[in-house]
Amino acid sequence: MNNSAPRSSNDSGHDEPGLPDLPDLIDRLRRHDEKAFEVVVQRYRKRAYTTAYAMLGDEAEAMDVVQEAFIRVFKTIGAFKGESSFYTWFHRIVTNLAIDRLRRRKTRQTQPLTYINDEGEDEGEERHEADGINNPDRVLESGQLRVDLNRALSELSPDHRAVIMLREVDGLSYIKIAEVTNCSIGTVMSRLFYARKKLQERLKEHL
Amino acid sequence: MDKLCYTLKDKLGKDKLGPFLDGELTEEESSAVAAHLETCSQCRDALMGMRSVGVLLRDDAIKAAEEANYSGLWDRVRAGSLAETVPAAPVTPVKGNDGWLEHFLAGLRPMLTPIEGLAVALLVVGVVYFAATLRPPMARPSVMEAATGNEAEIDSIETDSGAVMVVQSPESGATIIILVDTDNTPDEDPTT
Fold this sequence. Notes:
heterodimer; A: mainly alpha; two-stranded antiparallel sheet; 2 strands; elongated; disordered N terminus; B: mainly alpha; 47% helix; rod-shaped
């Protein structure tokens, strides 16, 4: 029973009507058919961007991840054995690239951060720089909600952010989130609980 | 307050509202939570808050994806993919203790990279140039040549035991010294 209405990730790999058959596309991809590759890019770019943006909260970085993910698909399509759907495989590539970026971003960060650990406790001091909120154009274009949302998300650790986005945006089950993030289901539940709690506190004006 | 009030549960394993929202509870657990929600406004509010956070996150990501500029993405992906998939030269395994010759021969594979090809071409040109600048070694006259009688005699000295003849080869220009022993007496016995 699912009481929420998360956007379906459609990871069944089923095709939209009127578009080339996915197994045929994958077969052509394996032969490095450029036209097939272009069709795959056009078909999945928006969903890939949605995931990447949700994780990173930055347009340019999200687009970089999408680009890198498609290049990786082209390079490693031979490793796709069809044990999961193509989209599940591709989605995992996007997610892993985004998580890597989040973690690199954390290590690059020179200012102290406020991250919550798995017990929900703050770690470190207050973070002064939130992702994407220092761009005045962005503030004007996206409004206060997006600014506040990015500020709240920036206070989550990469792992908390990844878990809540995989659940809320991509609609993955706990077990799939655990697989993608390489942790236990208990850890997934714990991270989801505290990420939700933190976001509710930070976004209460918009709820 | 209901003893099952989930808003009071703060520890892992006791929170049921999140898994209820996510459809991760068993049917029995889910029914219990649903029954509790009928009577507990605090939990209903908490559930509504969680749901609203999810809606905010989804809407923001979907809106960003709608607004994103995908122009040029395919060109960049294509360029990146082709750059990564230039057929690599077949690698001939070279055993660890093979010498330079094996490495050199392995480098002469048909699929040389431009740099390898240029290096080999320069090496060949260098060897050819070096060989062309060397003077050919002077031919050594053979004993047969000395014995043909075609050589021009320059000088000769005769002694009781033989002669020394200095001649010059007309073909190679080499100077030849010929010692002729005419004394047939055996060497003095070293014991006497």
